[in-house]
Every structure is written in structure tokens, then in C-alpha cells.
Specification:
single chain, mainly beta, four-stranded parallel beta sheet, 0% helix, 59% strand, Polymer-forming protein
Length: 75
């Protein structure tokens, strides 16, 4: 993913390390072993799979579902 900004109307699946700053209209799923810096807003759930790491500076409208991963809140 590297770096991405903007708006995603539906769900977003992150399969490689990177950052996202923007708005997601659905859920965000972070694949196993991936590191994501997440800013902006997610209207749905944040799903963090086994071994994944999310450094969160944005807002989550739904639930944070940890499936073996970790979330660090910054800011």
C-alpha cells in the first residue's frame, strides 16, 4: 500500500505495509503481518488480523476487532 489518501466508498483490505489518510465508507481489514498507519475516518469496523499492527490516529465509527493483531492509538 505504501501511502494512500482519499476516499474509499466501500470496504478496504490492506495487504501490504503502508499508511492511509482519508475516509473509508465501510470496514478496513488489515491482513496478517501487515503494519498500517491509519489516519482519517473509518465508518465501519477496523479488523486487525493475526500479527498485524495498526498505529491509529484517526476515528473508527464501528468496532475494533482484534483477531490476533494489535492497535496503538496515537494523537
Amino acid at each position: 500500500m505504501r501511502g494512500r489518501d482519499g476516499m474509499v466508498a466501500g470496504d478496504l483490505e490492506v495487504t501490504e505495509d503502508g499508511r492511509f489518510d482519508g475516509m473509508v465508507g465501510g470496514d478496513v481489514r488489515v491482513a496478517p503481518g501487515v503494519t498500517l498507519d491509519l489516519g482519517g475516518m473509518v465508518a465501519g469496523d477496523l479488523i486487525v488480523e493475526d500479527g498485524a499492527t495498526v498505529r491509529l490516529t484517526g476515528l473508527i465509527g464501528g468496532d475494533i476487532l482484534l483477531r490476533g493483531g494489535a492497535v496503538t492509538r496515537r494523537g
